[in-house]
Write a structure and sequence with these properties.
39% of the residues lie in helices and 18% in strands. It is α+β, with helices and mostly antiparallel strands. The longest helix has 45 residues, at 2-46. It has helices at residues 2-46, 68-74, 98-101, 111-123, 197-220, 225-230, 259-262, 287-290, 296-307, 311-324, 345-352; strands at 131-140, 146-154, 157-164, 169-177, 183-190, 245-250, 272-276, 331-334, 337-338, 360-361, 364-365. It is globular, with a radius of gyration of 28 Å. The protein is built from 11 helices and 11 strands.
């Protein structure tokens, strides 16, 4: 009997020891996984958040390009029900209003289409490769100036055309061959941490908003007490980033800009070019125009016309053209794009009054 009890005790002790060993092993595995995840998070935090040239680029992506706006819709972040709704203030990435956008010559029906067809006929030749698409985009220069440009894409090159939409004639063009590209960056347009441009942009936007509300609205009607308090809301003057996505094509082989090129506003040797969506993109297919469509065919035609001003569509077709080239060594990165502008007073004035676009300006047009 005592032998049976001893055997039973030994079995229980062995089972207990085995269970404790398994628990310790599980704890070691959990601790190892926690340490790996913490190290991974630390590495992500230490990663450089912006890209300027091919030398300091982040990880590349060989998968098909995904629109960030679609990702935001498909993967919405959970919102806390107790969190109060925030006031929506003017954003720089929705430029101009419906009335001001009509001052653009390119907003008139058929102007852009005729100009693009003229450029295709006069500037593209069979040796330039297969024609893939055309757009009207905003070029952002080294000095952060926005300019209206026609962009043609073929299987061999990207052609940037300066076009006079008033006189309807070509002024200048530049060819960039896809074989020469070594890096393409797609992402948000950002300024360096020490840049004063976001602060100046916030002050300019705040002053414009307050003056408009104080002068125009007061002349039309008397504001209520709540509207009176909103006129001088300090949030209107908060620093404003670009809040705009772009694509940068680079052929600098990872080398930094020389001082001669970086400090010369008239230099034509800048080894990269940056594009963003045209301002008309946000107004070509708004809610007020949807009721005017009499058929689905007209609606589809308007969506295709709106894509003509979209940088995302251009970036998708550009990536496909690069991937189709077996001889290309170009890397595609999805990272923020740094605009090296630190003071930016002239560019702020240039962009606020749209000097890079052909518009009706009172009694004059330029």
């Amino acid at each position: 009997m005592s032998d049976i009890l001893d055997d039973d005790l030994e079995l229980r002790v062995g089972t207990l020891q085995l269970t404790s060993d398994n628990a310790n092993a599980d704890n070691r595995v959990d601790n190892a996984s926690d340490s790996k995840s913490s190290n991974k998070n630390k590495n992500q935090l230490n990663a450089n958040p912006s890209v300027l040239s091919g030398a300091d680029s982040l990880s590349s992506s060989t998968s098909s390009f995904a629109d960030a706006r679609a990702e935001g819709i498909s993967n919405p972040e959970p919102r806390n029900a107790a969190e109060p709704e925030r006031t929506v203030y003017p954003r720089y990435d929705v430029p101009f209003n419906r009335e001001n956008i009509k001052d653009f010559f390119t907003f008139r029906k058929g102007v852009v289409e005729n100009a693009i067809q003229e450029c295709i006929t006069a500037l593209l030749f069979p040796e330039d490769g297969e024609y893939l698409g055309s757009w009207l985009l905003t070029e952002i220069t080294l000095w952060d100036n926005e300019k209206e440009r026609i962009v043609l894409l073929t299987s061999r090159l990207v052609m940037t055309i300066k076009y006079d939409f008033i006189a309807m004639k070509q002024l200048d063009f530049k060819k960039t061959y896809l074989d020469d590209l070594d890096t393409i960056v797609i992402g948000e347009l950002v300024y360096p941490p020490s840049s004063l441009v976001p602060r100046l942009n916030g002050i300019a936007t705040g002053v414009t908003t307050v003056v408009k509300d104080c002068v125009i609205d007061r002349l039309c009607r008397r504001p209520t007490a709540n509207e009176e308090a909103k006129l001088f809301d300090p949030k209107y003057f908060e620093p404003r980033e670009r809040n705009l996505r772009g694509v940068r094509l680079m052929w600098n082989k990872g080398e930094p800009l020389s001082l001669k090129t970086a400090w010369n506003p008239f230099s034509q040797d800048v080894p990269f070019i940056t594009f963003a969506s045209h301002p008309i993109f946000w107004h070509k297919d708004n809610e007020g125009m949807k009721d005017l469509f009499s058929s689905d065919q007209e609606r589809d035609g308007t969506l295709e016309e709106r894509a003509m001003y979209d940088m995302e569509t251009f970036a998708q077709k550009l990536q496909r053209a690069i991937e189709a080239m077996t001889s290309s060594a170009c890397c595609i990165h999805h990272s923020p794009i740094v605009i090296q502008s630190y003071l930016g007073v002239t560019s702020l004035l240039h962009n606020k009054i749209s000097l890079g676009f052909f518009k009706v300006r009172g009694k004059f047009s330029f």
